[in-house]
Every structure is written in C-alpha cells, then in structure tokens.
Amino acid sequence: MFELIGSVFILLGAVFLFSAGLGLLRMPDAYTRIQAGTKASTLGNMLVLIGLAFYHPSWTFRLILLIYFVLVTNPVSSHALSRAAWLVRTPMTPSTITDALADEDARTAGKAES
Asked: Per residue in 48-96, pLDDT tens?
C-alpha cells in the first residue's frame, strides 16, 4: 500500500517537473520562464521527495531536510536570477503591463534628488 502511495506522489512530481520544462520552452520572456520553472520544479521536487519517503521510511528526516532546503533556495535563487536579468536590462515581453522594479527605482531616485 505504501509503495502505491509513494508511486502516486512520484508520478505527480514527475508531471510537475515536466510542466516546469514545458514552461521553460513555452513562456515568452526570461522573467516568466524563471517563474514557471521555479514554481513547478519546487512542487515537483517536493512531491518526488515525499514519494521517496513512502518507499524508504528510514530516510524521512533527511528528505524533510531536503524539502526544507528546496523551499528556501528555489525562491531565493529565482529572485536573484530575475533581479540580475532586470539589472542587465533583459527585455520583457511586449504584453508586460507593469515593471514594478522600474517604478520603485524611479521612486527612490526621486527621493534621493530631494
């Protein structure tokens, strides 16, 4: 029974990891690719690790640590990549309506001049 539950979690994780790869191919610009890859791969990795915990109960504590590591590092790394892409002026897709960083940059530049 536990092997079946573990297999379902691993299969669901594989589906999310596949969708992360598909998002990298289908999204129009670097920023949406980073977002699609990060969200789907975070959930996919977590589901695979949970499935492994069902297969190997003695590894559960280590796998929980790995899940925590994934939850902490994936958002931080995607934020750093997005910020670096913005700083080197990587173009956004034309359908992007708001550039929140440019708005914030203009606001802080206005305060610095006052």
From this structure: 999 999 999 999 999 999 999 999 999 999 999 999 999 998 998 888 8
The amino acid at residue 91 is P
30-38 long-range Cβ contacts below 8 angstroms, 24+ apart: 30/82, 30/85, 30/90, 31/82, 31/85, 31/86, 31/90, 31/92, 31/96, 32/93, 34/78, 34/81, 34/82, 34/85, 35/78, 35/82, 37/78, 38/74, 38/75, 38/77, 38/78
Both structure tokens of 4:
């079946």
Locate 80 and state its tokens.
């750093």
Considering the entire predicted model, what is its pTM?
Answer: 0.83
